[in-house]
């Protein structure tokens, strides 16, 4: 079909045809690709100037790498800005003056990471253990920074029921980290406070199970995430 169309174009065109020329008529446009035709006793050869679609894709493909890299870098910068702003807000919340613990659940949801004040007694017969957990020691982490191996101590966070005497409700209180050798209550009798105390703590809400995280073992009182 291309050969026939090319002859029609050359037959009605009296201009000289040069290599790489694109012949255009009001109703006909054709790119001649290496076609040899005879016109007025002379042989005319034309060569196409446009490559195939595949060649065009291959030609522009290397440019996709820097464009994608630029887009990824921009996204990382924006993501870092959001994280820095989030850390700033959390720090301000955790350092604010303590508030009385509200009973309204809707109001409580707005107080996550805010400090609150409660008064009451611990019920040490109602303990649960979130494990495994590691001891958070910023000074030790600075000393071991850059080492191939660290001496991180593992254990559990002890969560104890707390009866609020001024509110008449029971809340779980995360009392902090204990090593594995002291998870059993009888190994830490000094920490089993029985008198009424006033606590200042940070509000934390329940959390959802992360992918690949084990299910909570309620039967053995071993918890991997807060499911309150």
From TrEMBL:
Keywords: Membrane, Mitochondrion, Mitochondrion inner membrane, Transmembrane, Transmembrane helix. GO terms for biological process: mitochondrial respiratory chain complex IV assembly. This is SURF1-like protein. The keyword Flavoprotein does not apply. It is found in: Membrane; Mitochondrion inner membrane. One of its GO terms (cellular component) is mitochondrial inner membrane. Probably involved in the biogenesis of the COX complex. InterPro entries: Surf1/Shy1 (IPR002994), Surf1/Surf4 (IPR045214). The keyword Glycosyltransferase does not apply. Its main location: membrane. It comes from the Eukaryota. It is a multi-pass membrane protein. Belongs to the SURF1 family. Pfam families: SURF1.
């Amino acid at each position: 079909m291309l050969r026939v169309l090319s002859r029609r174009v050359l037959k009605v065109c009296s201009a000289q045809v040069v290599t790489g020329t694109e012949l255009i008529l009001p109703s006909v446009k054709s790119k001649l690709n290496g076609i040899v035709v005879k016109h007025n006793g002379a042989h005319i050869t034309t060569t196409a100037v446009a490559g195939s679609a595949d060649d065009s894709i291959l030609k522009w493909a290397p440019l996709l790498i820097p464009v994608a890299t630029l887009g990824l870098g921009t996204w990382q910068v924006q993501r870092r800005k959001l994280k820095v702003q989030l850390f700033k807000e959390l720090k301000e919340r955790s350092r604010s003056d303590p508030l009385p613990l509200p009973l309204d659940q809707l109001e409580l949801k707005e107080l996550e990471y805010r400090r609150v004040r409660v008064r009451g007694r611990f019920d040490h017969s109602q303990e649960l253990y979130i494990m495994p957990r590691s001891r958070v020691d910023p000074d030790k982490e600075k000393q071991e920074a850059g080492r191939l191996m660290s001496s991180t101590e593992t254990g559990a966070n002890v969560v104890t029921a707390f009866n609020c005497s001024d509110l008449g409700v029971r809340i779980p209180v995360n009392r902090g980290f204990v090593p594995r050798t002291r998870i059993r209550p009888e190994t830490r009798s000094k920490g089993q406070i029985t008198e009424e105390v006033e606590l200042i703590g940070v509000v934390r809400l329940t959390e959802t199970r992360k992918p690949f995280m084990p299910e909570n073992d309620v039967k053995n009182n071993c918890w991997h995430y807060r499911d309150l």
